[in-house]
Write a structure and sequence with these properties.
The chain has ten helices and ten strands. By secondary structure, the chain is an alpha+beta fold. The chain has two domains: about 60 residues, Arc Repressor Mutant, subunit A, CATH 1.10.10; about 180 residues, Chorismate lyase-like (Chorismate lyase). The strands form three sheets. Strands 4-5-6-9-8-7 form a six-stranded antiparallel beta sheet, sandwiched between helices. A two-stranded antiparallel ribbon has the order 1-2. Strands 3-10 form a two-stranded parallel ribbon. Helix 1 crosses helix 3 and helix 2 packs across helix 3. It is elongated. One of its GO terms (molecular function) is DNA-binding transcription factor activity. Keywords: DNA-binding, Transcription, Transcription regulation.
Length: about 280
């Protein structure tokens, strides 16, 4: 008989991963209890907990107390490619309403249909604090329109992304439709909304950070323990050089991919790299 030199927790881990790969344990299924796995493998409950911890930290299972441990439905993955997305959004703003209704950025990045996604939007007029004022380049205490968005995959139940958007109120108050969240999701998104008040976005800059999610973010967005959040601070500037929108976009790292393609200037004919 060949001796198994793997650590006890590793034997349980490998066994559960093989069951998942074979389809014996499917999303939504309950994993055998600590006691059952300990007895089956002839090891301690502590070793079983070590295996479950690895599966939980990698997002394969979720522990729902006091019910038990369940195979997690894989979250919907998105690919965000700012280098092409922002121009696509600008071009889309010029299309007819029917064409703009056919798809949105969330559908484009997730590969899902509109019917597969649940959108929520909340608008409120508020006063800019020091941080938001600095991002918008306005005086502290300026009236702004705060817009909070969330997109959820209906199938997986996972939040694809969440964002807070801030626009100086004097930019959009000329169009009452832009102040009413019942008009969301707006065909054509923010760039089309801004175009209705004569604003053309000229450039967009992203600042990408990563941090640990808060307890509320982890629970409400169903983020596995140990999984960080991407935070994209997006600043939109119009053709007059004014900052017209600042948004903070939250993307759980277990379901988001950030992709960039940066064009480089070619060397002139006859130019060569230095020695």
């Amino acid at each position: 008989m060949t001796r198994d030199y793997r650590p006890a927790y590793q034997r349980v881990l490998d066994d559960l991963q093989e069951r998942i790969a074979a389809g014996d344990l499917k999303p939504g299924d309950m994993v055998p209890s600590e006691g059952e796995l300990a007895e089956e493998h002839g090891i301690s409950r502590g070793s079983v907990r070590g295996a479950i911890r690895v599966l939980r930290d990698t997002g394969i299972v979720e522990v729902i107390r006091p019910k038990g441990t369940f195979i997690r439905t894989p979250p919907t993955r998105t690919v965000r490619e700012p280098s092409s997305r922002y121009q696509w959004e600008k071009d889309r703003a010029l299309l007819s309403r029917e064409e703009r209704l056919s798809t949105g950025a969330s559908e484009k990045e997730s590969g899902l249909d509109t019917a597969d996604l649940e959108f929520s939007a909340k608008y409120e007029k508020t006063i800019s604090d020091e941080y938001i004022s600095g991002r918008l380049g306005v005086e502290e205490g300026t009236q702004v329109l705060k817009r909070t968005y969330s997109t959820t995959s209906i199938k997986s139940g996972s939040v694809i992304g969440r964002s807070n958007s801030y626009i100086p109120l004097d930019i959009v108050d000329g169009n009452p439709d832009l102040l009413d969240d019942r008009n969301e999701p707006w065909p054509g998104g923010t760039q089309h909304q801004l175009s209705t008040v004569g604003v053309e976005v000229d450039s967009i800059s992203d600042r990408i950070l990563a941090r640990v999610p808060t307890v509320d973010e982890r629970e409400s967005m169903k983020i596995p323990e140990g999984t960080p959040l991407f935070v994209i601070e997006k600043t939109s500037i119009d053709i007059a050089g004014r900052i017209v929108e600042f948004s903070s976009i939250l993307l759980p790292a277990d379901r988001a991919e950030l992709k960039y393609s940066i064009p480089l200037k070619r060397w002139k004919k006859g130019q060569h790299a230095g020695n």
